[in-house]
Each structure stands twice: as C-alpha cells, then as structure tokens.
Amino acid sequence: MRNLSLKQKTTLTNTLLLRQLELTEQLEISQQAAEIVTLDQTAVGRVSRIDALQQQSMAISTRGTAKLKLQKIAIALKAMSKEDYGYCRQCDEPIPFKRLEIQPEALHCLSCQNKTDQR
Predict the structure, then answer these.
(1) Inter-residue contact 40 to 48 (CB < 8 Å)
(2) Quick one: pLDDT at residue 40?
(3) Distance from the CA of 93 to the CA of which of 17, 40, 79, 111 falls in 20 to 30 A?
C-alpha cells in the first residue's frame, strides 16, 4: 500500500468498516422480507399475493447484492492488512485514490475493470 498515505489508508479503512456495518444491518433487516411468502387471508385478491412475491423477489436480489459487496469489502480489508490494498488484481498497477474514495472495495483499476465488464 505504498501508493497511499497513512491518512488515506485510515480514511479508506473507516469507510470500508462503516459500509460493512451498514450492509450487515441491511441483511439482518431484509431477512424477514426474503422468507417464504405466506398467503395473507385478510388481503383481497390475487394482486396482494403477486405484490408479496415481487417484494420477496426484490428482497432476495438486494440480499444477494449486499452479500457480494460484503465479500468484496472483506477481500479489501484483508488486502489492507497484507499491504496489498490499492493495487489492481489484474495489472498490479496502483488504483488511484479518487477511485478508491468512490469505491473502496475496488479490486481493479478503471482500465482493467472496463475490460472485465466488456467480457
């Protein structure tokens, strides 16, 4: 992590830890919404059942995204402890601080990320 100052490293570590906490809380809150939908006998008609299924589907999707972000954050925090943080996993070039400020869990520089996204 020779490309980052101590202040930058501290800022990014705090950001990662805060996001980790927020995502963990989000997963706990969304757990109930992602559970099996039961038929609400007090609700009227097919629409309420479809609405419940759509909400469940959205909750499951949101949980999947949150879990993926948590994995990336864990990888970033582990890399930070090994002094590997802030380097592209593909080309091994330093990832600019501006990119890490926006997406501290980034594993690739913008150039390599664009190449990966195009595949």
Answers:
(1) yes
(2) 59
(3) 17
Query: Is residue 16 exposed (0-12), middle (13-18) or buried (19+ Cβ within 10 Å)?
Result: buried
**Residue 28, pLDDT score:** 85
pTM for the predicted model, two decimal places: 0.77
Q: At what angle do helices 45-81 and 6-30 cross, to 10 degrees?
A: 150
**In terms of residues, how long is the chain?**
119
d(CA 32, CA 47): 20
Where are the chain's structural domains?
6-85
Give the residue carrying structure tokens 């963990």: 24
Give Cα separations from 64 to 32, 78, 109, 113 (angstroms). 14, 21, 24, 21
Contact between 86 and 1 under an 8 Å Cβ cutoff? The reply is yes
